[in-house]
Amino acid sequence: MIARRSLPLLLGACSAEAQTGATRTGAARRVAASGGPRPSITLEGPSAEGVLVFGHPFRRGDIGRGAGLRADAGGSGALPVQMDVTTRHADGSVQHAVIALRIPALRQGQSLPVSLLVGPEVGAPLSPARAAEGRSARVEVGGFVVDALAGQGGWQVGPLAARKRVEVDVPADAAGGATSLRLVLDVALHADGALVLDTWFRNDLALRPGVEYASYELRVSLDGREAMAGRVARHHPYAGWGRLVSTRPIAAHIRFDPTYLADAAAAHRYDLGTGVAPQVLDGFARAMAAPSWTVPLDPRGITQRMHTGGARADIGPAPLPVAAWVISQDRRATRFVLGQAEAAGAIPWHFRDPQGGWIDTRRRPGFWTDTRARPPHGLTFPVGGDHGWAPDRAHQPDYSFMPWILTGRRAFLDNLTAQAHHSVIATWPGVRREGGLPDNNIVHNAQTRSAAWSMRQVDNAAWALGDQAGWVGEVSAANWAWLRRMLPEWTATQGEAHGWIPGEYGGSGVLPPWQQDYFVSTVAMAAKRGSADARAVLSWMENFLAGRFLARDRGFNPHDGCAYLIAISPPRGTPYRSWAEIGRETVARNLSNGEGWEKSRGDYGRWALQSLAALVEVLDTQASRSAYSWLLNSGAYGIDATTRARLPTLSIVPA
């Protein structure tokens, strides 16, 4: 247990230092044509006056290259602001930035709308040396001491905040004999005098002698005052944990604009009218009140045995808590999501290369994390299973992307990037080399659900990293290009009902439509972000995705469009080439819904509906609109507003 002492232990960004040639389609075209809403946030009290730091995405063109940012609080006037750009769109405009904002004191219940507009940055940069004079940010691990303020270099400075990162390997004698433990410290000095430290203990160094479970005493102090202290008895390899502490916490809650987040292709377009059921938000508060919430490496409600299936609330374009956060902008959802983002560091899929960065297949061809692989193509210390975690690519949730986007905490970007790398290196090399790709094909001959979530992670990381994406960006581009190259061959094979991604489905001659819907949630977002290859794949998939609800006159029952399984070929045979064959065999094998929904109980109707919503938003065709309208009004199981408010993961609508 970590003891809370004289300084508060903060859960994350929105309640303190937040931490540290696209093709326009559907809604994006309409936004561009109208000028669209400008980016804005709403601050809610109570909070002291001071510097608040958060992340924010921007639509292409809103903040052009060379432009600065100003913050307009309406009647309260302009607020001092600092914008540190992290990524840019292809035209050079800002795609994402970490923003520091000096806010006034806010009373309980008081709100302050703030518009983020183009304007010059005002004020001379802080002097880190002067701001750090006489101050300290010390982390002690088993007698090994690091002061994050020591040294003069590495600072990123502006008028409101100066930040830097310190990374240090912990000696084995301070970590219980493990040589794999690192300290990763993101320290910031603010113009209001705050000293902020995001402290991460990462036992993730791989491929070296001494990779082992770590054990250590720890103490973190700011300006000589203890912020947290305790003992970690068993820190498993390839995992980390961290906490954010500050000498002057700024407690303002930030409400973002969900519509703008969707327009910027950072979030899916959720149904704001349906909202989130109160019991969901109350559940977040109860979970955070549990004593285990403060324990290092606690999963904080994350499913540890990820191979378990079913209608899990964390499986989707984003987990249920993230969807609830985007939709509701509720303070409880914010704190819960950021707490789970910290907990995601404990998932053992963080493989740090001793040469720097996360392990990839460019530097280490043929590398595989499976226990069947042996060095130099495998781990020197296997992942194991006695820590409670069982990662699985086919059921992996994404707990890191949106927290990084809306907080700017680099630790969350680390977690996101590590997970993206794992999505590749956990794939069998025999699959990765299919299709002529250089050891990075994560779609061919995989379960379609595995391809969906692996590509989601790779794409989210590539988008978040921008021109620093490197290998991750190459993996994303190569897989979308390969898929596009395969379309003519698959069309010839699949015939009239073409548009489904081949894969392994655990049964011969059947297709689970819901796995196609999984994949669509990823390909549609990639298309919104500007991938021409992903857009071509989505256009091709529309024939099947929309057609399954529009092909009654060609022999396929639209009620079977979201059945658990449909017949797609004879056992171990070539695919059926007509809707009539698929429809007839689906009935013959007792897979059909008939005129009811018995074979669609669960979340299969919601999956199909979000898939069609994505088609409408990106492609905006008559077929996608007709299919969406039919299913929305069909009475299919689980698509009603009450269910979607209780399970908002798939409460996604067209623009």
Description:
With 655 residues, this protein is of the alpha+beta class. Among the domains are: 2-117 and 251-267, no CATH class; 128-246, no CATH class; 469-655, no CATH class. The chain is 30% helix and 19% strand. The chain has helices spanning 27-34, 128-132, 258-263, 278-289, 320-328, 331-343, 401-407, 410-425, 429-432, 448-465, 471-494, 513-528, 532-545, 579-588, 604-618, 622-632, 641-646, and strands at 2-4, 9-10, 40-44, 50-57, 69-72, 78-79, 81-88, 94-103, 111-118, 137-141, 144-147, 156-157, 161-169, 181-190, 195-203, 214-222, 225-235, 239-246, 253-256, 510-511, 566-567. A six-stranded antiparallel β-sheet has the order 2-18-15-14-13-12. It has a five-stranded antiparallel β-sheet with strand order 1-17-16-10-11, with no helix packed on it. A five-stranded antiparallel β-sheet has the order 6-5-9-3-19. The longest helix has 24 residues, at 471-494. The radius of gyration is 25 Å and the shape is globular.
Query: Count of DSSP E strands?
Result: 21
What class would the helix/strand composition place it in?
Answer: alpha+beta
* Number of helical elements: 17
In percent, how helical is the residue content?
25-40%
Largest sheet: 6 strands, antiparallel
Distance between the termini: 46 Å
Global morphology: globular
Rg calc: 25 Å
Contiguous low-pLDDT stretches (5 residues minimum) are 1-34
The largest sheet has its strands arranged as 2-18-15-14-13-12
- Let me know the average pLDDT: 93
